[in-house]
Each structure stands twice: as C-alpha cells, then as structure tokens.
Amino acid sequence: MAGGSSAGAGVDVPATPLFAPRAQRSSLARDSGVSGTVIVRAHVGADGRVLETSLERSIPRLNGAAVDAVRRIRFRPAERAGRPVESWVSVPVTVAD
To answer: CA 20 to 30 Å from 58, out of 8, 26, 36, 64?
Structure first.
C-alpha cells in the first residue's frame, strides 16, 4: 500500500500514513484470480484516524479489502499553521497475495 496525497484546501503539510496494514483478498477474489489497485479516498481527522471513506477507483471484488485496510491506517494528520487539521487523502491500495 502506498502513501496518499492530500486534497485539503489550505493545508501546509499533508496527512501521511504512519502505519499501513496489508489488504487481504477475500477467498472469492483469490479463487477467481482478481487482484489490482483500488483507490480509496480517506477523510483523516485531526487525531490521525480515518473518519470516513469513499472509492475513487473501484474493483468490485477488492473494494471491501481495500476499504478495510484504509480504515486501519493511522496517519500523521495534515497541518495548517502548525496545528493538526482534518483533510482528505487518496490512498492507492494494491490487493494481491
């Protein structure tokens, strides 16, 4: 899983992942040979926790694993004027063995 890019207006320092767990394919996705990269948008709170998610690029059999992985990421929150703030980031998640 790669780092994300910030899309927050007025953010001096973008949110960056501190811990990024691996996404695990479901048995259905594994049995059907589906793998790839899903892009998940994450709303990161000022405490570095993911508040909500949405999908930017979807692979139906992998979406659940990608969203679950992103929800477990802990971020260094974005900063504005030296203070932590909420922001949105795009997180590419590669789901494979």
So the answer is: 8
Of 9, 33, 27, 1, which is closest to residue 86 (Cα–Cα)?
A: 9
CA separation for the pair 17, 69 (Å, rounded): 12
Q: What percent of the chain has pLDDT over 90?
A: 72
Query: What does the alpha-carbon distance between residue 55 and residue 90 come to, in Å, rounded to a whole number?
Result: 9
Three-state secondary-structure class, residue 47 = coil
| Six token digits for residue 25 | 């394919």
- The C-alpha atoms of residue 19 and residue 44 are separated, in whole angstroms, by 14
What's the DSSP call for residue 27? H
Is residue 65 within 8 A of residue 27, CB to CB? The reply is no
d(CA 75, CA 14): 10
Query: Which of 31, 35, 30, 16 minimizes the C-alpha distance to 75?
Result: 16
Residue type, 75: F
**Residue 45 backbone phi and psi in degrees, to 5:** -75, 170
